[in-house]
Amino acid sequence: MRMFLISDNVDTYTGMRLAGVEGVVIHSKEHLKEQLEKAVSDKTIGIILITEKFSREFPEIIDDVKLHRRLPLIIEIPDRHGTGRKPDFITSYINEAIGLKL
């Protein structure tokens, strides 16, 4: 199994290529759908890395794949601008998930 990157910027793509991860840089919703379908249908891809920007802008596309397929696993990664998450993201996630305040 291998990883595949779907990025919205060349810097993230270049960094991942240096680490040996293949991928694409895209800038439109249509191209995202096309490349995601192509990656999902490739049985050699086990993990799809996707920048958080796409998850924020097009959650319906990403969530559809996450909910209806076991593989490949979709991992959202921050890009060169940093993460869009709050500093206490993990604590908030635990509070929501189990109702325990940390």
UniProtKB/TrEMBL annotation:
Question: Does the keyword field hold Lipid biosynthesis?
Answer: no
The record's listing under SUPFAM superfamilies reads: AtpF-like
This protein's record includes keyword Ion transport: yes
Which keywords fit this entry according to its UniProt record? Ion transport, Transport
- Drop me one GO molecular function for this one: proton-transporting ATPase activity, rotational mechanism
Family label: Belongs to the V-ATPase F subunit family.
Q: Spell out the protein name for this chain.
A: V/A-type H+-transporting ATPase subunit F
The source organism is Mobilisporobacter senegalensis
